[in-house]
């Protein structure tokens, strides 16, 4: 009799267990969803690490601020797809999309706004490097879409600007920005960044988009843009692995594969510009009376002055800490760059602002950021340098030259800016501080206009890759994107 009484009891336990199986298997000590702050921290750090590393390998070298001493294909214009830029930034976009989704669920306007601004910046780098890219369907793998279309660059670019506008509005709303490595949760600072980034993109689109000038002026009129170096978008790294500036953990031989460029040394030595002691390490390691050797782009196998103390610690040599120099930061956009952008806009006749005032302020902002050591170069202060070095404003190309110098290690911006001037000036002859790289050259000494798409796209997203590739003359590095037409 007991045997038959036990049977319903056992069955009821089993049925109860099956109905509540999921709750039994939950671990109360393990979170089931990643917090917004963790995702945002990861996305922001990895995106900046990607662009900082690619500035070391690509951006600075293509712009001739630095040069390759080994593996000099970049300088030879023997270009491939440079897939680490593509892969690193698209990985960051996956996290950013999740941050936006979680912020929407929690009605956190500020977190959504900051993530939208970051996503817009990441997409702006990708489209300026490659042209047409996956945009509207990018990051849709969770929905089963593993072959996103390649959107038209004009549509992408205008959507990016719209996303920056929307992000700035959201940042004025409620909520907070957990995990913010850039501005420590300041929504007001993020708004300034969103507006300043729009000015960068609008100036670049000026030749292709007639509305850019009016939009540029509207943003300048708000005054809600970078006003000092404290406002700029620069991520501070720490001294311990893995959250160091990307060049710090390199082997010495890998770091020495890049040296200061001859073009940069020529300009800065001619002006006795004290930033040279920050961009490069003197040959004799004497920072008060050092000499510098620039490497010619496009040669390879040369040796030159190593890059500055902020970027690497050589055994037995002076470090940034010992010299009281700030360690390298991941530069997204600086105050100096914004001032030169405004100076260029004034030179184009877009605004009535003083070209020279903006130009001079841009140089000063860059000098202050790099802690210029005037005394070691024979200057009493910045005014002495500006007045007597020969740097004082004369012609528009002066703005280009100082803008170029100030972009050192600012992601891919050195390349994008030089490419703009190259197109606008009709080639190298119109840029007085640069020449075509000498030596062996795989592109007839013409500056390439874009990167090729990563090879894996040919197999993983073949149909859409082929469609986009055909729009660029079979994925040719010399094909012009909408932005450059």
Task: Describe, in plain words, how this protein is organized in 3D.
With 485 residues, the chain is mainly alpha-helical. It has one domain: Serine Threonine Protein Phosphatase 5, Tetratricopeptide repeat (Alpha Horseshoe), CATH 1.25.40.390. Helix content is 50%, strand content 4%. The longest helix is centred in the first third of the chain and has 27 residues.
Q: Strand-residue fraction?
A: under 5%
Percentage of residues assigned to helices: 40-55%
Biggest sheet record: 2 strands, antiparallel
At CATH's second level, what is the architecture? Alpha Horseshoe
Distance between the termini: 91 Å
Count of runs of 4 or more consecutive helical residues: 20
Order of helices and strands: HHHEHHHEEHHHEHEHHHEHHHHHHH
Unreliable sequence segments: 1-33
Number of strands: 6
User: How confident is the prediction overall: mean pLDDT?
Assistant: 92
**Overall number of domains:** 1
User: Which class of secondary structure composition applies to the elements?
Assistant: mainly alpha
Question: Radius of gyration over alpha carbons?
Answer: 25 Å
Shape: globular
Strand order of the largest sheet: 1-5
Q: The CATH topology, please?
A: Serine Threonine Protein Phosphatase 5, Tetratricopeptide repeat
CATH class: Mainly Alpha
């Amino acid at each position: 009799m007991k045997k038959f009484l036990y049977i319903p009891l056992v069955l009821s336990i089993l049925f109860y267990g099956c109905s509540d199986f999921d709750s039994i298997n939950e671990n109360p000590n393990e979170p089931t969803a990643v917090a917004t702050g963790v995702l945002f921290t990861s996305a922001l750090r990895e995106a900046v690490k990607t662009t900082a590393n690619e500035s070391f390998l690509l951006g600075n070298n293509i712009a001739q601020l630095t040069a390759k001493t080994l593996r000099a294909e970049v300088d030879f214009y023997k270009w491939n797809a440079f897939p680490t830029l593509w892969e690193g930034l698209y990985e960051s976009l996956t996290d950013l999309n999740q941050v936006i989704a979680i912020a929407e669920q929690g009605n956190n306007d500020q977190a959504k706004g900051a993530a939208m601004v970051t996503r817009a910046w990441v997409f702006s780098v990708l489209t300026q490097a490659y042209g047409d890219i996956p945009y509207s369907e990018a990051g849709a793998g969770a929905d089963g879409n593993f072959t996103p279309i390649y959107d038209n660059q004009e549509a992408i670019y205008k959507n990016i600007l719209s996303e920056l506008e929307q992000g700035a509005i959201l940042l004025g709303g409620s909520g907070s920005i957990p995990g913010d490595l850039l501005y420590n949760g300041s929504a007001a600072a993020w708004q300034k960044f969103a507006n300043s980034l729009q000015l960068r993109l609008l100036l670049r689109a000026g030749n292709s988009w007639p509305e850019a000038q009016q939009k540029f002026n509207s943003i300048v009129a708000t005054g809600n843009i970078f006003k000092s170096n404290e406002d700029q978008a620069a991520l501070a790294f720490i001294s311990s692995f893995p959250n160091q500036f990307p060049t710090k953990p390199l082997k010495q031989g890998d770091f020495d594969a890049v040296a200061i460029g001859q073009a940069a040394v020529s300009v800065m030595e001619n002006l006795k510009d004290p930033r040279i002691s920050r961009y490069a390490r003197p040959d004799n390691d004497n920072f008060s009376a050092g000499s510098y050797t620039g490497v010619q782009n496009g040669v390879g196998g040369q040796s030159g002055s190593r890059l500055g103390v902020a970027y690497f610690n050589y055994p037995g040599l002076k470090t940034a800490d010992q010299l009281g120099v700030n360690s390298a930061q991941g530069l997204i956009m600086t105050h100096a760059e914004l001032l030169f952008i405004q100076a260029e806009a004034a030179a184009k006749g877009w605004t009535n602002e003083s070209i020279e005032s903006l130009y001079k302020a841009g140089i000063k902002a860059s000098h202050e950021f790099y802690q210029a050591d005037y005394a070691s170069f024979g200057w009493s202060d910045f005014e002495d340098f500006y007045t007597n070095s020969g740097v004082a404003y004369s012609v528009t190309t002066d703005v280009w030259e100082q803008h170029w110098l100030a972009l050192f290690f600012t992601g891919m911006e050195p390349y994008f800016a030089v490419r703009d001037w190259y197109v606008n000036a009709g080639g190298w002859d119109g840029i007085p501080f640069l020449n075509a790289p000498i030596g062996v050259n795989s592109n007839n000494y013409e500056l390439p206009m874009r990167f090729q798409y990563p090879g894996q796209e040919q197999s993983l997203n073949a149909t859409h890759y082929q469609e986009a590739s055909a729009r660029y003359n079979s994925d040719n590095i010399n094909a012009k994107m909408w932005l450059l037409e």
